[in-house]
Amino acid sequence: MRKSTLSIFTLLCFASVFAQARKELNFGLIGINYEIPVHRDITIAPGAGTTLDLDWLNAGVKGNYYFDHVFGITDDAWDVYGGANVGYSFDLRDDHENNGHDGSDFNVGLQIGGRWFWNDKWGVYVEIGGGNVSGFSPGIGLTLKL
Predict the structure, then answer these.
(1) Which of 3, 6, 58, 115 has the fewest CB atoms below 10 angstroms from its CB?
(2) How far apart are CA 11 and CA 67, in angstroms?
(3) Predicted local distance difference test score (pLDDT) of residue 26
(4) Region label for 25, one of left (φ > 0), alpha (ψ between -120 and 50) or beta (otherwise)
(5) CA-CA distance, 72 to 11, in Å (whole number)?
(6) Tens digit of each residue's pLDDT (9 = 90 or more) over 63-79
């Protein structure tokens, strides 16, 4: 059951990426995602990532709300956002072989972050987030407007 649910979830994530080719590709130190706008201030972002200690592989979807209008940010070079994420976390630790327990499970979490674009195409982002299974998962990387 778990594998079939994960397969369907992964298929839907990647189908949405190729069905609506637009917006931004975020790739960083420990992850990658593709943001698809669904509203002026809301995006969904299928993606994959890991934690800083490489104990987990997370595949899922983030939903972000951009607070630029709420905070009165009028400069297009800056973004401030927060949101929720859902997906599946694969336990990459070797210790589950010793005790017979695989910690892989559905992961639900939150994130906050910000971005700054130095030109019309490229920017840098910083994000703090995590989930109930994988734990704390900060990120830093580049954003490419497509």
Answers:
(1) 3
(2) 30
(3) 95
(4) beta
(5) 38
(6) 999 999 999 999 989 99
With pLDDT > 90 as the criterion, what percentage of the chain qualifies? 52
How far apart, in whole angstroms, are the C-alpha atoms of residue 80 and residue 98? 43
Q: Give me the residue label for tokens 């201030």.
A: 41
Report yes or no: 23 and 146 within 8 Å, Cβ to Cβ: yes
Q: Which of 6, 85, 100 lies closest to 47 in space, CA to CA?
A: 85
Radius of gyration of the chain (CA): 16
* Helical spans, DSSP H, in the chain: 2-19, 68-71, 95-99
Do strands 56-66 and 105-117 pair parallel, antiparallel, or not at all (unpaired)? unpaired
Q: Where are the beta strands (DSSP E) in 1-146?
A: 24-28, 31-39, 42-50, 56-66, 78-91, 105-117, 122-131, 135-136, 139-145
Angle at 142 between CA 86 and CA 44, to 5 degrees: 30
pLDDT surpassing 80 at residue 10: no
CB 57 within 8 A of CB 92: yes
| Model pLDDT for residues 106-146, shown as the tens digit of each residue | 999 999 999 999 999 999 999 998 888 877 888 899 999 98
